[in-house]
Amino acid sequence: MAKSKTVGALIVGCAGTALTDAEISFLQRYNPWGFIVFKRNCESPEQLKRLTTAFRDAVGRRNAPVFIDQEGGRVQRMGPPSNVWRKYPAARLYGALYERDMMAGLRAPRRVGRLMAEDLFEAGITCDCVPVLDVPQPGSHEIISDRAYAVSAERVALLARAHIAGLVDGGVLPVMKHIPGHGRAGVDSHVSLPVVDTPLAELSAVDFLPFAAFADAPMAMTAHVVYTDIDPNQPATLSRKVIAKVIRKTIGFDGLLMTDDLSMRALSGSFTDKVKGALAAGCDIVLHCNGNLDEMTEVAEAAGALKGRSMTRARRALKGQRKPGKFDRRAALKDLERLEKL
Predict the structure, then answer these.
(1) Run of H or E residues at 103
(2) Dihedral sign computed on CA atoms, order 224, 238, 243, 293
(3) pLDDT digits over 178-234, tens only?
(4) Who's near 337: CB < 8 A, 6+ residues apart?
(5) Most CB within 10 Å of its CB: which of 1, 134, 197, 288?
(6) Choosing from 128, 134, 260, 284, which is the catalytic residue?
(7) Cα–Cα dist 277/289, whole Å
């Protein structure tokens, strides 16, 4: 099948540890901008490198980004139960270390982030969906909990900045999430739609602050959350009000905005409806993660080509990638060991 000359406004996954012929045909036909891997796709460093290379071959060997959710703790796609990759700490442990020793607490996330980048870059992965900039609140659902660096907005921003400095130094671009904030959600958006009734003034004073501190980030992922004081009818992913007034204006983010996974149950309707709704609201790229080829095809048909300001943002995002720099691996491993003992 002839390769598409246009780039699709989507990021997709695949079902297993290698691309099937049908998946290769899909990639060649729709030429998605990016690819994302999950635990089901990660068996060994060599296998994963073959997979990411096969994806780039299928889309014309361009500098196509490959994404992963490699936060550490509960969200680590390359890791346990496999023993071939290091186990990394949940973000909250950086905050715990900072409370004991402020200098060590700032040094450790940078060094450990550099270790993480080494694993990713060697496997052909160039983008990590971190930092989690959500600020958990009392009574909120545990879906965020220790994935957050701290419970204060200022400390979240401080520790996250250190963490992604290590990733960027290792050649891996960050994706901040879940903009404009998932920390007050009372339910898991993988299962149902969270509705947050907090007044806008309070959201601005707390939840939005870490994202504003990272307004220069290359990429961000939306929250499937309804904020009733901004838009009572649509979650952020599908809300022109949230994206235009809060994400783009109040927070000041002008990087590439991608949806969270469209297959999460927080969003209702067909995939066509969800894709068209997200793009019309102001998202640049849609994300589909579960590897279901029929769903991916529907998403790709609805998404169409990446173009205009969205294409400009996509190109600008990738220009921020650098070649991995040298680092003190021994010191980084010592910091990782200290975190494991907390």
Answers:
(1) helix 102-122
(2) positive
(3) 999 999 999 999 999 999 999 999 999 999 999 999 999 999 999 999 999 999 999
(4) none
(5) 134
(6) 260
(7) 18
The whole-angstrom separation of Cα 291 and Cα 184 is 29
Using an 8 Å Cβ cutoff, are 218 and 256 in contact?
Answer: yes
Two structure tokens written together for 332: 């980084």
Residue 80 confidence (pLDDT) = 74
The model's pTM is 0.96
Residue 58 has which token pair? Answer: 């299928």
CB-neighbour burial class of residue 64 (10 A; exposed 0-12, middle 13-18, buried 19+): buried
Sequence ranges of the domains in the chain: 80-289+307-340
Phi, psi dihedrals of residue 116, rounded to the nearest 5°: -60, -45
Q: Is residue 141 annotated as part of the catalytic site, yes or no?
A: no
Nearest Cα residue to 113 out of 28, 29, 173: 173
Q: Is 229 helix (H, G, I), strand (E, B) or coil?
A: coil
Is there a catalytic annotation at residue 229?
A: no
Residue located via tokens 């971190």: 130
